[in-house]
TrEMBL record:
Domain of life where this protein originates: Bacteria
Subunit structure, as described in the record: The main subunits of the menaquinol:cytochrome c complex are a Rieske-type iron-sulfur protein (QcrA), a cytochrome b (QcrB) and a cytochrome c (QcrC).
Native organism: Paenibacillus albidus
Keyword Transmembrane part of the UniProt annotation: yes
Transmembrane segments: 26-47
Function according to Swiss-Prot or TrEMBL: Component of the menaquinol:cytochrome c reductase complex. The Rieske protein is a high potential 2Fe-2S protein.
Protein name: Menaquinol:cytochrome c reductase iron-sulfur subunit
A Pfam family hit: Rieske
Keywords: 2Fe-2S, Disulfide bond, Electron transport, Iron, Iron-sulfur, Membrane, Metal-binding, Oxidoreductase, Transmembrane, Transmembrane helix, Transport
Gene Ontology molecular function: any one: oxidoreductase activity, acting on paired donors, with incorporation or reduction of molecular oxygen
Amino acid sequence: MSSHNEQQETWPEQRPGRKEMSRRQFLTYTLGGATAFMGAGAILPMVRFAVDPILHKKGEGDFIKVAEVAKITDQPQEFTFELKQQDGWYASTASLIAWIRKDESGEIYALSPICKHLGCTVGWNSNKDHPDEYHCPCHGARYTKLGKNLSVAPKPLDQYKTKIENGWVYLGDITPNTEANKEA
Ligand code: FES
């Protein structure tokens, strides 16, 4: 009798306890899984939205039509052109300058006007004391026709990658000057 009574006392305590635990776990997992699923559904589009500009290429390697080949002479000429930029979600248009000339063999070169000292804009033949040179008005840097640095600036002017197509000069990325070292 006493053992039957003990069983009766202990059973009700144990069985609901086990059932309750199991149901709680089941509900926890189910609700947790559903919440995670819904959370992922809400967050993933936001993540996609945030990284989307990074997934798109910035247009590196693109070329822009700048000048007619027929207009290029052995004297550097200034050409301005526009570059459309995408910085994250911010789209803008930058106005750029190139000094374009051709050499004796007809090869076309385009120099960046950004002074390699502190970034001012150089001009061709703008200093009467030093004709046929690029001159920077900020601190007096001077460069040869090929962009070789003569004073103040530590490096030659950079050059644009160029491409000739259907009678037009196309300009691409700015790269270190390879032509300047040809000068003695
Ligand atoms: S920025 Fe050109 S000389 Fe200083």
